[in-house]
């Protein structure tokens, strides 16, 4: 289609209420050309509202389509991961716990093994890992860190039920003076932060020395 024909078609489409984007997509012309040809042909307010509404619907439809594609892809990836992981045996849980502690555990406290996190699943795994050392649940101590806008008693009950530990295992929660309103990742702190501690010198020393062995395996020659 010649440029003159495209201009005539663009004017015709504009009179029928087409947007710049619709004309551009059909005729394959630049927006600058359309601005030159149609600068004195603004759309009426009613048509502009219709186009805005149509854009909202189109964007929502596109978002839903992409979400469904993403979820379908994640489902397949998860199936592959589940197949590759299989069922964790005792040794695998032991090693996984060591690497978790290497990254997230408290390694400066003397004679105690401690982990803090907002994810209850991680804390539950930590309890399971400690049990592999023969640690009795009634020796575990829990400190919950909350924000001022949270219901302390409700959150203690949540953690008690989720971790399957009695309230007697919990110490007085630490309440921060600030609220969650200013947090960037507020959803992450929906139940605060849980700090689980087991005080025992032998377990603490064993864990730290096991980590030192792992670290030495990957440490560069010459130290550091």
Account of the 3D structure:
The protein has about 220 residues and is an alpha+beta fold. It has a domain at about 90-220. The chain has helices spanning about 5-15, 20-25, 30-40, 45-85, 90-105, 120-130, 150-165, 200-220; strands at about 105, 110-115, 140-145, 175, 195-200. A five-stranded mixed sheet has the order 1-2-5-3-4. A hairpin with a 5-residue loop joins strand 1 (about 105) and strand 2 (about 110-115). The protein is elongated, with a radius of gyration of 30 Å. The model has no long low-confidence stretch (mean pLDDT about 90).
Mean pLDDT: 88
Largest sheet: 5 strands, mixed
Terminal Cα span:
70 Å
Helical fraction = 55-70%
Number of strands: 5
Tally of alpha and pi helices: 8
Radius of gyration: 30 Å
Fraction in beta strands: 5-15%
Structural class: alpha+beta
| Secondary-structure element order, N to C | HHHHHEEHEHEEH
Shape: elongated
Low-confidence segments: none
Largest sheet, spatial ordering of strands: 1-2-5-3-4
């Amino acid at each position: 289609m010649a440029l003159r024909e495209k201009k005539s078609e663009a004017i015709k489409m504009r009179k029928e209420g087409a947007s710049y984007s619709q004309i551009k997509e059909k005729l394959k012309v630049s927006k600058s050309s359309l601005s030159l040809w149609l600068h004195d042909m603004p759309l009426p307010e009613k048509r502009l509202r219709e186009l805005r509404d149509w854009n909202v619907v189109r964007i929502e439809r596109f978002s839903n389509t992409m979400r469904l594609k993403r979820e379908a892809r994640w489902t397949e990836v998860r199936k592959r991961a589940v197949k590759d992981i299989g069922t964790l045996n005792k040794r695998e849980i032991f090693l996984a716990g060591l690497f978790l502690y290497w990254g997230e555990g408290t390694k400066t406290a003397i004679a105690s093994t401690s982990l803090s996190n907002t994810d209850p699943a991680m804390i539950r795994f930590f309890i399971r890992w400690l049990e592999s050392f023969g640690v009795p649940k009634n020796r575990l101590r829990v400190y919950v860190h909350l924000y001022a806008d949270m219901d302390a008693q409700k959150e203690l009950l949540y953690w008690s039920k989720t971790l399957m530990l009695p309230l007697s295992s919990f110490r007085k929660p630490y309440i921060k003076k600030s609220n969650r309103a200013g947090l960037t990742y507020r959803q992450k702190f929906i139940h605060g932060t849980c700090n689980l501690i087991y005080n025992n010198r032998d377990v603490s020393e064993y864990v730290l020395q096991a980590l030192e062995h792992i670290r030495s395996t990957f440490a560069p020659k010459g130290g550091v």
